[in-house]
# Entry
Amino acid sequence: MKIPFDPRQRRAVVNPDGTMSIVDHLYELRARLMWSLLAIVATSIVGFYWYSHGPFGLPSTGHLLTGPYCDLPATSRAEITRGGECRLLATGVFDQFNLRLKVAVATGIVLACPVWLYQIWAFIVPALHRKEKRYTITFVALGGTLFVSGAVLGYLMITSAFSFFLTVGNETQVTALQGPQYFGFVLTVMAIFGVSFELPLFIVALNLVGVLPYTKLKKWRRGMLLSMFIFSAVITPSGDPFTMLALGGALAVLLEISIQFARFHDRMKYKNCPSDAWEGELDDEAASPAPASPQPIGASAGPTGSALTASDPIERPEKLMNTSIPRSGLDDIL
# Structure
């Protein structure tokens, strides 16, 4: 007898408690990466068209990215076209195609950020409780907003940096930038700002999982704030103080917001859970409780019927001392 095929049998069985083996975690990670890459490829095709054609009345991405350079005074940049139009210099055969492809992929990553942020959250969800799984839409919305906000802030920092560094010596020289170097610099700064703005969100996610409680974040606050500015000084490719301070200050504010969220979340978690569920868990800075007093050695009851204490007298065994022991018994003892 042939049993009909049921397509529901191919569905993966997820444990109700969210536990998975290492192999299952690897398969899950591979699936999440594949969905993210497919979304980026689809949005990169849109970005490839958007490079030179602005849809829905929007400016093209090529025009947006060249804005910080083209907004400079005409005396600060070289004119390489006959009509004096703002253009970047391409010295290689494949420079224009590679440049358009790079901008298309960067645009695709920005447009697909809700998808790959959801895949990251879905990979973390099995370790969360049912109430915490409701934060999916909030996580994806905040993640996309923070990524785009970081990229926009990086774009504004590039504009202010160019207006200073490319005009400080225009009396004796003009700037002629090559397309790959210029676009590579702009995209790198925007990507650094966008990814850096996701750091506080991942701190919140780790707090929801239970890896980073508020007590640890409170202890590490000063070191983490200092590391934000050190990270900004190292990661920014321009090296100017304006970009470093802007990135460091924004990360410090977002870090403090994530720490306060962890404080509120842990307080509500301890408040809603019974006290015996947290028995034995102490704060890292709290002292351990004093051990209980040991029971007195000896009889369980003293002369008054209570336990023996140091002040209770102990009778001297006079009878035993005065009792004579036979020689044979003494030899057995010795």
Q: What stands out?
A: DSSP finds 13 helices and no strands in the chain. Residues 241-272 form the longest helix (32 residues).
